[in-house]
Specification:
Oligomer: single chain
CATH superfamily of the largest domain: Class I glutamine amidotransferase (GATase) domain
Strand order of the largest sheet: 17-16-18-19-25-24-23-21
Structural class: alpha/beta
Shape: elongated
Number of domains: 4
CATH topology of the largest domain: Rossmann fold
Largest sheet: 8 strands, mixed
Radius of gyration: 40 Å
Number of strands: 35
Helix content: 25-40%
């Protein structure tokens, strides 16, 4: 026999008290005066043995009542034979879905609160020596620990909402790995309780797992309503942020409910711009609302767009930030066949600040703090220049390549392959008139008043054949009559443009045409290195920081309530912070944050993933089918919703010995009362 609370056994020392009381009562005498003692002696002889038996019976009854009362508090139990041999015989895994969809209101409050109460009832009904694994969407190493009954109850109280969402197959696979690691008895009793709204089941091509002996108890929690209105995403029509220029902010708002929504209130608050709009959203549909405004000053801007909705709250706000700069920093590298037209065009707008250098004097430091690099009439690309340009592109910088009249194709093609652009082939002199402009590409959005192919387009006398390979990622912006590309672009971290001819007058008059000025100004405008306008917490994407940072000063993500140091790395002079790790999910919330070292170096806006915003539509059959597909043979489905009570799982448990002790305590107390009352 073992005890859940063995410390209560010290109370057995209190049994000395009734023994002492009885002993004093036995020896207490009282003098009575009678005229004749013969009668008293006779009575005393007859009752002496009876009184002695009565006192001992009362003493035993009182002691037994105290003993069983103390044992009831100590809670005795008999462990299984396997437990005595340190073999884990019974294991219960309780998964509590703590994703944001569990914010929905059920019959007894939030679904997460309902799930925690479900789990508590299951644990309270379990065997005293049962061991548990309590799992949330974290699926962390700490959750692999085997817990006692008390520890499991404490763990449940610690589970709060998490931005993580898990597929059912991921949870089952994780549980299976823990079972295989901890279960020593192949015939052990393994039970998996899954408490969730089952938003995500996973793909249909899952491999079967060794879970045939595991009993699964999916408990589906249903919200009272599936209505939800939320901000799905934001984006600007143009990536350019300039003072005094109209910008268009697009807001996608979704209604996942079965009812049309009228006059849904949307609040926009970005820097000094504040506006409230009202929109109508049909059932199970979405709308895109567009807002126009201007930035009045340079600097870092941050804000939030909010929808007023009382169902789920995590997706009501969408945070955004960006940087309005005063100029674009450009480096012009002049080669043997450079033309002055490049600098003449850049001089047209003070927004472009450029530095011109000869190819022979270029160093790596010349690329620092630059947004755009223009190669002007260069024939030979040395390994050093190619490496500088490759690193600059990898760091998010944009490049425009204008080759000279006699380019070294081997060196040029090596760089073009690195930049994922089509390589240069043989010279072509026929069909070189410009035939088509790719108006559908975002590069030309807003450049022309209307898209037309009747423009008086220039021509080049000589062009190079653009050779597209499987590794090329370039798209054509300008096409010649012979079908070859005159200008191609790849869009990676930074844009890379290649002009498949030369700007020299020997190759045509393209550099004197308005189209040349348009292309150069537009590419310069789009080249400004900018950070993402928002990030999704838990996403793989890394946030770049283009400021010069002292390696000895860590980067902090800060607001009024949070000061967090993320993991960071550095590549090609650019620092990157990661927002995927477990500590990020635990400590950061959606909102706008300053990036700081010994000074403020930027702003980052964090948002939650919207995968949990859609209503729950999975059925009992779908859940059972998924578990069967994974290899489960024993499935007992339960559903909680509407007016149903909280469901509990009936599990094997031994006789409640503490209740038996209470019953015996009452029996002996009643026996003592009978002895005192009826035995004289």
């Amino acid at each position: 026999m073992q005890f859940v609370y063995p410390q209560f056994l010290w109370a057995l020392l209190a049994l000395i008290i009734p023994i002492v009381i009885h002993l004093f009562n036995f020896k207490r005498y009282k003098t009575l005066y009678f005229s004749s003692l013969s009668f008293i002696k006779q009575v005393d002889q007859k009752t002496k043995s009876t009184k002695s038996i009565k006192h001992y019976l009362i003493l035993v009854s009182r002691l037994m009542a105290f003993i069983f009362l103390i044992l009831a508090f100590a809670q005795p139990f008999f462990p299984s034979q396997e437990s005595e041999n340190q073999t884990l015989d019974s294991l219960f895994s309780i998964y509590i879905d703590n994703s944001f969809s569990m914010e929905s209101k059920g019959t007894e409050g939030e679904l997460l609160s309902q799930a925690r109460e479900n789990a508590r009832e299951i644990i309270n009904e379990a065997n005293l020596d049962t061991r548990f694994i309590v799992v949330s969407n974290d699926l962390s190493g700490s959750e692999k620990r085997i817990l006692s009954k008390i520890e499991a109850l404490e763990k449940i109280d610690e589970i709060n909402f998490s931005p993580l969402s898990r597929k059912l197959e991921d949870v089952v696979e994780w549980q299976t790995s823990v079972f295989n690691k901890n279960m020593l008895n192949q015939e052990a009793n393994i039970q998996s309780i899954l408490i969730s709204d089952f938003q995500h089941l996973g793909s249909k091509s899952s491999n079967q797992l060794p879970i045939q002996q595991t009993s699964f108890y999916p408990i589906k929690l249903n919200p009272e309503t599936n209505n939800n209105v939320y901000i799905d995403s934001l984006w600007f029509s143009s990536p350019i942020h300039k003072v005094g220029v109209n910008k268009e902010l697009n807001i996608r708002i979704k209604n996942s409910g079965q009812k049309d929504i009228s006059n849904s209130e949307i609040l926009i608050n970005i820097d000094r711009f504040n506006r409230t709009i009202f929109v109508d959203i049909p059932a199970n549909s979405e709308i895109i609302s567009q807002i126009s405004y201007q930035d009045k000053s340079i600097g870092k801007k941050k804000g939030v767009v909010q929808v007023i909705d009382n169902n789920l709250f995590f997706d009501n706000n969408y945070y955004v930030s960006y940087d309005v700069k005063s100029e674009v920093e450009i480096l012009v590298i002049n080669g043997e066949d450079a033309i002055p037209n490049v600098e003449m065009v850049l001089d047209l707008d003070n927004y472009f600040s450029y530095t011109s250098k000869e190819i022979t004097s270029i160093t790596k430091n010349d690329f620092n703090a630059k947004d755009f690099v223009i190669i002007n009439g260069l024939n030979t690309l040395t390994n050093g220049i190619s490496n500088f340009l490759s690193d600059f592109s990898e760091a998010g910088g944009s490049i425009m390549l204008f080759p000279g009249r006699t380019p070294n194709k081997f060196n040029w093609n090596r760089l073009l392959q690195i930049l994922k652009l089509p390589t240069m082939g043989q010279k072509v002199s026929s069909g070189t008139k410009i035939n088509q402009i790719n108006y559908d590409d975002p590069f030309f959005k807003g450049v022309f008043e209307k898209n037309t192919q009747k423009l008086n387009l220039p021509s080049v006398s000589i062009a190079y054949n653009s050779l597209v390979s499987n590794q090329s990622m370039g798209s054509s912006l300008i096409l010649l009559q012979n079908g070859l590309s005159l200008l191609s672009v790849t869009k990676k971290k930074g844009n890379a443009y290649m002009f498949y001819s030369s700007l020299h007058s020997d190759y045509g008059s393209f550099s004197k045409d308005a189209l040349f000025s348009t292309i150069l100004l537009r590419s310069s405008e789009l080249s400004q290195r900018k950070q993402p306008e928002f990030m999704i917490i838990g996403d793989d994407t890394k946030f770049p920081i283009y400021e010069n940072i002292d390696e000895n000063n860590p980067i902090h993500i800060k607001n009024d309530d949070i000061n967090f140091i993320p993991r960071s790395s550095s590549t090609s002079g650019v620092h990157y912070i990661s927002l995927k790790n477990q500590d990020v999910l635990e400590q950061l919330k959606a909102g706008n944050y300053w990036l700081e070292t010994d000074r403020k170096i930027g702003v980052v806006s964090l948002n939650y993933n919207r995968t949990e915003s859609q209503p729950n539509k999975t059925t009992e059959q779908e859940i059972k089918s998924k578990l069967t597909q994974l290899g489960a043979k024993k499935i007992q489905f339960n559903e909680v919703g509407g007016k149903s009570n909280v469901t509990t799982i009936e599990i094997d448990k031994p006789f409640s010995y503490w209740k038996f002790c209470i019953v015996l305590t009452l029996i002996f107390v009643f026996t003592e009362m009978l002895l005192i009352r009826f035995i004289k």
